[in-house]
Amino acid sequence: NNGSPPAQATSLTHIATQSIPIVSCLSKRNANFTFVPHPSVPDKSTGSSIPLIASSILSKKLAAGTHTIVLDVKVGAGAFMKTQEDAVNLAQTMVKIGTSQGRKMAALLTDMDAPLGYAVGNALEMKEAISVLRGKEKGELRILCLALATEMLSLAENIPEKEAAELLSFD
After folding, report:
1. How many CA atoms lie within 13 A of 57 on its CB side?
2. Hey, is 54 helix, strand or coil?
3. How far is Cα 1 from Cα 142, in angstroms, rounded to an integer?
4. pLDDT tens digit string along 74-112?
5. Are 71 and 106 in contact (CB under 8 A)?
6. Is residue 43 within 8 Å of 36, Cβ to Cβ?
7. For residue 161, how many other CB atoms are within 10 A of its CB?
8. Is 107 helix (H, G, I), strand (E, B) or coil?
9. Backbone phi, psi, residue 48, to 5°
10. pLDDT for 51-60, tens place per residue?
11. What is the pTM of this model?
């Protein structure tokens, strides 16, 4: 697997390139859901309480009156959700809760078996994040930020993802 989605998953929303650890997207517009795993993602369940985690995360967003929500659900060694099964379950649960409350919802699953950026420590990570926002970074962190922004713009403005991606392109 070179990191790109399998051919049979082309009907799903995939915001990915060969080098980015974004694995799949779930939204109200995409009833089906496929996880494209990073080769090192483990298979065993953590036994976490998905309903409690989902309600804790979404209660704050719903209480704040947010109308459009894009979630970045991390999976892997550096994430709370250690397995793809748990991450998919959490993403589906949160999207279901949000849409049941009339919110536009999407969840991207991203691999956390390795760091996205190069900086270590709060100050350096903030500096790197600002550099990404200014369009000066070219790595995986930038690609992830653009993918999340693309999904948010697409949902919020009800436009195709391709059009949203073109509007956000820094290249």
Report:
1. 20
2. helix
3. 23
4. 999 988 899 999 999 999 999 999 999 999 999 999 888
5. yes
6. no
7. 20
8. strand
9. -70, 155
10. 999 999 999 9
11. 0.70
